[in-house]
Write a structure and sequence with these properties.
six-stranded mixed sheet, Rossmann fold, globular, alpha/beta, 17 helices, single chain
């Protein structure tokens, strides 16, 4: 890593929004050839700082320098011209265009007004090869799996002469093999002298890929750390400012009583064949498994959101929930993996989103004052950060959006079974702990919780029992009080019981 002059310097960055200060004198310095991690809780100011760097927002105060020279970034185009490429967590690809069209959008090779398609596809293929992607450049982005779309977004940054590349939670949708490819690309880009700003909430990634880390808290830079000589506990403490531990299942006695939810069998031909899962009132049962193991399909089938053969009993009686509406009437609630596509109405206010299921009306007909009475206490309990209850929910950070998805079910009441699909995706350590405390509080009222997560350490810390799904089947059940995480991980990877 180059330890010479800084490639990027952001000094005294201030950005104010109505009712809040997103950046309050934030500082960020990144060297050439460095992988620099940007850390902080949701609402700490990371997203705003990145948008300012990308040119999509302008700071109220402060300056930005590239290789020591001040730059004015008035638009995303000026950011790209300055050599800055941003790969956002919520991918900004054009779904109906091909991979090649996305990779060279805005700078495709042309002869006069005509695009040189063969040359565009050749350059796109080179970029995909750099990230180890083997899908065709002629594929439509919409038809690609999420992991392939993520690799497409990374490859797009390589088609420009970017000196600074920002990667916002690149691993959120990637499996282990794809993540290895991304890490290889990151290291090769740094070796070329490019600067990588890597944003992640996963400490194992930070410790593996990072050279230095800047921590933001409440819009301010609170520390810059050398990753090799800093333990993850130090970074977490800097992020949250206090010790906050998740609610651990090892502190709770086993849940007794008859099951509330009995999954006798759920079958989707070629994808899923699960049976024998039970969840008692007050119990949190985890679903572990690799990508594609069937966790999301199972939850969606239970919620009536995917065509499946479902044999399920609720409190001893057959559950006939062939649609989400009937599932809700029966007392089921789903927090989906994709909060933006399935969980929220991004253009509507925080309160309307949080109260829509409680009042049972179309959101545009929802009385704001009545909705606020139902939603405000729940939003406060969950610690949702927003500048105004009228603020569009799409303007919140990812973690706060996820809390609003949970809030709409809590505000409704009457939930008997809570289905959680990757509820902490994109959340920082503190927000994860807050969410799991709220989930545990719901369980303590008698709600049965079925929790799917790719974070095994979160399942062992927060679930009373863990089912492992492997290639569409549930292959083993473990008590995290008596079984090591290593043993469970072995079954997750191999599908074999110890």
């Amino acid at each position: 890593m180059d330890t010479g002059p800084d490639r990027l310097t952001m000094r005294g960055i201030v950005k104010r929004f109505p009712g809040t200060v997103a950046n309050d004198g934030a500082e960020l310095s990144v060297r050439a050839g460095e992988v620099h991690c940007l850390l902080g809780e949701n609402g700490a100011g990371k997203s705003t700082l990145v948008k300012i760097l990308a040119g999509s927002q302008q700071p109220d105060e402060g300056e930005i320098l590239i290789d020591g020279a001040p730059v004015a970034l008035h638009s995303p185009q000026s950011g790209l011209a300055a050599g800055i490429a941003v790969i956002y967590q919520e991918l900004d690809l054009v779904p109906d265009l091909t991979v090649a069209q996305n990779l060279l959008l805005g700078h495709a090779p042309a002869f006069g007004p005509f695009v040189r398609r063969a040359e565009r596809e050749r350059r796109a293929r080179q970029a995909l090869d750099r990230v180890g992607a083997d899908f065709p450049v002629t594929a439509t982005v919409r038809d690609l799996p999420i992991a392939a779309q993520q690799l497409t977004a990374i490859a797009r940054a390589l088609t420009s002469d970017a000196r600074v590349i920002v990667m916002d939670e690149p691993s959120a949708t990637l499996g282990e093999n794809d993540l290895r490819k991304v890490f290889d690309v990151v290291r090769s880009l740094a070796a070329e002298g490019r600067s990588i700003i890597y944003i992640s909430h996963r400490m194992d990634e930070i410790m593996e890929i990072g050279d230095r880390a800047t921590v933001l808290r409440d819009g301010r830079t609170v520390g810059v750390f050398d990753v090799a000589s800093t333990g993850p506990d130090t970074l977490v403490s800097a992020m949250i400012g206090e010790a906050r531990e998740p609610a651990g299942s090892d502190q709770r006695p086993p849940v007794a009583g008859d099951p509330l939810l009995c999954v006798d069998r759920v079958r989707v031909p070629g994808l899923l064949d699960v049976s024998g899962i039970e969840v008692r009132p007050g119990e949190v049962v985890g679903l572990a498994g690799l990508g594609g193991a069937g966790r999301t399909t199972l939850l969606r089938a239970l919620f009536g959101d995917v065509k499946a053969t479902v044999e399920v009993r609720l409190d001893g009686r057959p559950l006939r929930a062939g649609s989400p509406a009937s599932a809700v009437r029966a007392g089921l609630a789903l927090v989906p993996e994709s909060r933006k596509e399935q969980g929220l109405m991004l253009g509507l206010s925080v309160v309307r989103n949080a109260a829509v299921t409680a009042l049972g009306r179309p959101p545009w007909l929802l009385p704001h004052r009545r909705g606020a009475r139902r939603a405000d206490p729940v939003l406060a309990d969950l610690g949702v950060r927003f500048s105004s209850p009228h603020q569009p929910v799409g303007k919140l950070s990812g973690g706060n959006q996820q809390k609003v998805v949970l809030a709409k079910w809590i505000a409704r009441g009457g939930v008997r079974v809570l289905l959680l699909d990757e509820p902490t995706r994109g959340l920082d350590v503190g927000a994860k702990a807050d969410l799991y405390r709220q989930v545990r509080a719901l369980a303590d009222t008698g709600v049965a919780v079925l929790l799917a997560s790719s974070e095994l350490n979160e399942l062992t810390a927060n679930a009373d029992g863990v089912w492992v799904l492997y290639e569409g089947r549930n292959v083993g059940f473990f008590d995290p009080r008596t079984t090591s995480e290593t043993t469970i991980a072995h079954t997750v990877i191999t599908g074999a019981m110890p």
